Amino acid sequence: MKQGTHHSNEMQRNWHTITSLVSRDFKLKYRRSALGVLWSVLNPLLMMVVLTAVFSSFFKFDIENFPLYLILGNTLFALMADSTTSAMNSIIDSAPLIKKIRINKMIFPVEKVLFTLVNYMLSLIAVAAVMIYFQIAPTLNLLYMPLLLIFMLLFSTGLGLLLSSLAVFFRDVLHLWSVVITAWTYATPLFYPIEIVPDWMLQAEAFNPMYHYVTYLRDIALWNVTPGLTENLICFGMAISTFLIGLLVFKKTQNKFILYV
After folding, report:
1. How much is the mean pLDDT over the chain?
2. What residues contact 95, with CB distance under 8 A and at least 6 apart?
3. Quick one: which of 13, 29, 172, 258 is 20 to 30 A from 37 by CA?
4. How confident is the model at residue 33 (pLDDT cuts 50, 70, 90)?
5. pLDDT above 70 covers what percent of the chain?
6. What is the pLDDT of residues 215-240, one digit of tens each?
7. How many CA atoms lie within 13 A of 16 on its CB side?
8. Residue 46's pLDDT band (cuts 50, 70, 90)
9. Looking at residue 101, what is its pLDDT?
10. According to the model, what pLDDT value does residue 11 have?
């Protein structure tokens, strides 16, 4: 009974630490910004306007409601890219604290993912504004949104745990990840239709988790398509397997962090 109480108290302490760190990061992010929180709404809108102007003119893609197609993909991909990049740096950035006190090291990458998720929720205001502008009414399929966010949270956390572990021992990971993110951006149909990709790339997309997550979001928010059991299982499978791999690597290596940070 005492052991259960101890674990419960530890979880409460960890959660309190995480929420405190999220609050701190939120205040730091917008402290010197004239627009403040509004920037999280304006930024995806401005990016959407620029990319729409460029790609709709150059490629003449026949995509209905292209700006919404664009902002849905870009904001979701940014959730993964920003959260994993922040998580990757979290252990190294927290080195002074890790050396001073005994603390659950997993708190740091997990907090970065949750902080990015909070910012993503703000960017959904921009998505809602675009839907209102194009007169696209929300449907019952949007009820799948929390499920998609759970998939994204598991996937990004797992990737963040893996990267944060690797970055401690191999600093080159910090530089390589930005290259991977850039390549991943172009390999995912964020600003082009999937129909234009060659067959070999189409087959490769089946193994691209972000293709599945972006398609899932567009299905429920833009195309009014209900995700089937197969697609849900694929998304969950990719999320939970990535999470478990990241968790395993982190658990195996965390005791050596203090020697390398």
Report:
1. 91
2. 261
3. 13
4. low
5. 93
6. 999 999 999 999 999 999 999 999 99
7. 7
8. confident
9. 87
10. 85
Which whole-number Å values give the CA distances from 132 to 47, 128, 139, in the listed order? 18, 6, 13
| Type of residue at 240 | I
CA distance 143 to 95: 41
Rounded to whole angstroms, the Cα distance separating 22 from 63 reads: 38
Give buried/exposed letters for 95-108 (b at 16+ CB in 10 A, else e).
eeebeeeeeebbbb
In angstroms, the Cα distances linking 220 to 60, 90, 126, 132 are 25, 33, 17, 16
Residue 135 has pLDDT above 90, yes or no: yes
Cα(178)–Cα(184) distance, integer angstroms: 10
Q: What is the widest separation between alpha-carbon atoms in the chain?
A: 66
One-letter identity of residue 139: T
C-beta of residue 238 within 8 angstroms of C-beta of residue 212: yes
Q: How far apart are CA 224 and CA 220, in angstroms?
A: 5
- The pTM assigned to this predicted structure is 0.93
Does 86 have pLDDT greater than 70? Answer: yes
